[in-house]
């Protein structure tokens, strides 16, 4: 079926571990979605008009609403499609908190071991990631750091093994949930590495069995969409977000205020727009671009900084 303003469009590429996180959520929920393949390095001429400059992957688009970062993408999927919830009796919210572990220190250990190992990257990729990270992408230093980072990786994966030690099928109980998804994308990323790198996981039998259970959940029903068609959907659609005051906003931000929103780790270009809504976990800003007209771009609050502009 052709995509419409109600369709889930995931701007992604297949090797992207953070996209795997979202694809697994789509699998748990059994949803239909459209994959829009974006480049692995800049420029991303079919992504930036939607986001206003956010270049990381994944980005989710539903009509003229654009969700940047897997955390807000997953919150929105759970809000719009609650039939199979991602949170359960033992996880009212902590999966999002645990994501700050899995997506940061655990993920960085995986990256260090993969790129310090046999991963082949070209000059263009190195330059791109230097710009993204704001520091040298030093393969030699990464190679030298592999023994240290292996220790880190083992500690992270062992934490999962211990969590599964009582025989539970999923990390927080009988059903797959957000915490499984958060942890799993790191394991899926390791699977792109050599046999030797993969042994970091293979020595943990409970993690291996859990990995198979997560893989069996699948990715929902995927179709492809061309970037030009995704842009056309945004152009023709109107955001569903309604302006709403946020009484607890620590800095008094209100609808209509001009702000810049940026990640606090890497890819820190501020995305500028006018506040539509905000809450403890979400900020939505309105902006426009000749290629897509007016869109509303959504970000999480954990891990993102919001500054007033002029
Ligand atoms: N905090 C972000 C991290 C996203 C991220 O780092 N994505 C990687 C790909 S998995 C990326 O964007 N790399 C640079 C690029 O693709 O341009 C999230 O949860 O979505």
One letter per element, helices H and strands E, the order comes to EHEHEEHHHHHHHEHEEEEE
SS summary, helix count: 10
Poorly predicted parts: none
Q: What's the CATH first level of the largest domain?
A: Alpha Beta
| CATH fold node name of the largest domain | Glutaredoxin
Tally of DSSP β-strands: 10
Strand-pairing-aware structural class: alpha/beta
Oligomer: single chain
Average pLDDT across residues? Answer: 97
Q: Are any ligands bound, and if so which? A: glutathione
Overall CATH architecture of the largest domain? 3-Layer(aba) Sandwich
Biggest β-sheet description: 10 strands, mixed
Structure description:
It is a single chain. The chain has 310 residues and is of the alpha/beta class. It has 2 domains: 9-84 and 222-308, Glutaredoxin; 94-215, Up-down Bundle (Glutathione S-transferase Yfyf (Class Pi), Chain A, domain 2), CATH 1.20.1050. 42% of the residues lie in helices and 18% in strands. The chain is built from 10 helices and 10 strands. The chain has helices at residues 17-29, 48-51, 70-80, 94-116, 123-133, 139-163, 178-190, 195-202, 205-215, 227-236, and strands at 9-12, 32-37, 59-62, 65-68, 221-224, 258-263, 271-279, 282-289, 293-299, 304-308. A 10-stranded mixed sheet has the order 5-2-1-3-4-9-8-7-6-10. The termini are far apart. Bound molecules: glutathione. Glutathione binds at residues 16-18, 40, 55-58, 69-71, 103, 132.
